[in-house]
């Protein structure tokens, strides 16, 4: 088979040279007639339009920068988390507010001596009390610090959510792009076979070729159509994710646009593994949220200790006729004596939460470090394989066109023709899968670091 392949490549190159040299020597000479009984070769289409594209209501070309802009501005999950941040920030204001004063009024309903009801004159009884709760030991400031740390946790949760959703967006974008490129390969091949089969069907009906050739061609076309259908099914989740993340309700067929030279130029470059690990320790939103949570628990411990000091209740009382003198005025003070309840349980809980938060932070740092190291190594392996396997597919397109002509002229058999076609198809499909895997690996490393360090847009 390898010998036949090299002979065929040589034949294609000879045909290309033969098409130029006779034209210089014999201008206007008629072309040689094709072999009797064989269908004439037909030109290959250059850029077939995918059937899914043609059937779509609308096709929208989308760059990654446009997708990220729509994502940041319209994603509903980000919007909901922004409201969580706003709600947490409102709790800072709430923690700083003073308690409202309590005003109470007591009025005699019926005065049996005067026979009056609701007597508010000098002969009736009226009592007015005003009380204000005053917190001491810096409790209001401590509560505000707890709320402020909680708001900071929500801000970092928003940052981490943005990191996670951006990773989903970018991987869905690149996966969809390379699957659409593979879909175009299938569309080109299916179009070619749909053009070839009717011609060979006519030759079979004329008795020039065997029926088994037509049957094999139709069977191969059926396989290509099934593979294309499965690929279109695999594209659906990527297309759905892209629409949901960008809040696209148009139902249009999204067509990602990628600058291939920039994707090929991606490299780990000057970044060492330790540099990316150090960056991740600083940039990762989940680590920052864990750190802020630990700070929140430290503030909560100080707040719980401040609760040991009792609140001071200051009040004023006016009694018109119910005391030992008329128009009684008095100052009232109240305080809870911390004899039994000194908030021991809440203090111990806060101390335990601090220790647990430290352990969780250490675990999170270890996980982030391993994520960066693992993805860094994965990118190195896939990128090395990509640099060895990636190549311009133009020569293969020309060779497969020559194979079609060779089969039409009966220079190769049906088995060799289908074998070459299958090899051509597998090469392009696997090459696109390798490219998609490489971009996915780079995006995984970006997500592990906490920001898009490696960008191809």
TrEMBL record:
It holds the Pfam family OEP. The keyword Signal applies. Keywords: Signal. Residues 1-25 form the signal peptide. GO terms for molecular function: efflux transmembrane transporter activity. It comes from the Bacteria. Gene3D superfamilies: Outer membrane efflux proteins (OEP). PANTHER family: OUTER MEMBRANE CATION EFFLUX PROTEIN, OUTER MEMBRANE EFFLUX PROTEIN. Belongs to the outer membrane factor (OMF) (TC 1.B.17) family. This is TolC family protein.
């Amino acid at each position: 088979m390898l010998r036949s392949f090299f002979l065929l490549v040589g034949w294609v190159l000879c045909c290309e040279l033969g098409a130029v040299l006779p034209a210089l020597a014999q201008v206007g000479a008629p072309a040689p007639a094709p072999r009797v009984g064989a269908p004439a070769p037909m030109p290959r289409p250059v850029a077939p339009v995918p059937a899914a594209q043609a059937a779509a209501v609308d096709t929208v070309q989308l760059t990654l920068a446009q997708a990220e802009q729509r994502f940041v501005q319209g994603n509903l999950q980000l919007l909901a988390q922004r409201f969580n941040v706003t709600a947490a920030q409102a709790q800072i204001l709430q923690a700083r507010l003073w308690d409202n004063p309590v005003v109470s009024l007591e009025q005699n309903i019926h005065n049996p001596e005067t026979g009056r009801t609701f007597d508010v004159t000098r002969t009736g009884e009226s009592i007015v009390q005003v009380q204000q709760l005053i917190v001491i030991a810096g409790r209001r400031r401590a509560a505000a610090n707890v709320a402020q740390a909680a708001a900071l946790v929500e801000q970092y949760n928003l940052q981490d959510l943005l990191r996670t959703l951006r990773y989903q967006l970018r991987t869905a974008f690149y996966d969809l792009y390379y699957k659409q490129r593979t879909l175009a390969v299938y569309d080109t091949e299916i179009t070619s076979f749909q053009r070839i089969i009717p011609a060979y069907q006519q030759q079979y009906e004329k008795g020039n070729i065997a029926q088994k050739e037509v049957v094999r061609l139709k069977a191969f076309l059926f396989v290509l159509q099934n593979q294309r259908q499965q690929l279109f099914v695999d594209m659906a989740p990527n297309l759905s994710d892209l629409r949901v993340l960008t809040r696209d309700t148009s139902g249009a067929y999204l067509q990602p646009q990628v600058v291939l030279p920039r994707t090929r130029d991606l490299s780990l470059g000057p970044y060492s593994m330790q540099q990316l690990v150090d960056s991740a320790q600083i940039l990762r939103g989940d680590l920052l949220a864990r750190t802020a949570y630990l700070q929140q628990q430290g503030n909560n411990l100080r707040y719980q200790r401040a609760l040991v000091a009792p609140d001071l209740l200051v009040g004023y009382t006016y009694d018109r006729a119910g005391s030992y003198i008329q128009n009684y005025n008095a100052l009232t003070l109240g305080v809870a004596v911390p004899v039994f309840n000194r908030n021991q349980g809440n203090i111990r809980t806060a101390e335990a939460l601090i220790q647990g938060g430290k352990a969780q932070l250490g675990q999170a740092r270890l996980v982030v470090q391993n994520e960066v190291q693992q993805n860094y190594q994965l990118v190195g392996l896939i990128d090395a394989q990509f640099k060895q396997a990636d190549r311009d597919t133009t020569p293969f397109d020309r060779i497969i066109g020559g194979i079609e002509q060779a089969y039409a002229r009966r220079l190769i058999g049906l088995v060799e023709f289908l074998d070459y076609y299958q090899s051509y198809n597998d090469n392009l499909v696997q090459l696109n899968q390798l490219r998609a895997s490489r971009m996915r690996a780079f995006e995984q490393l970006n997500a592990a670091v906490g920001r898009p360090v490696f960008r191809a847009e």
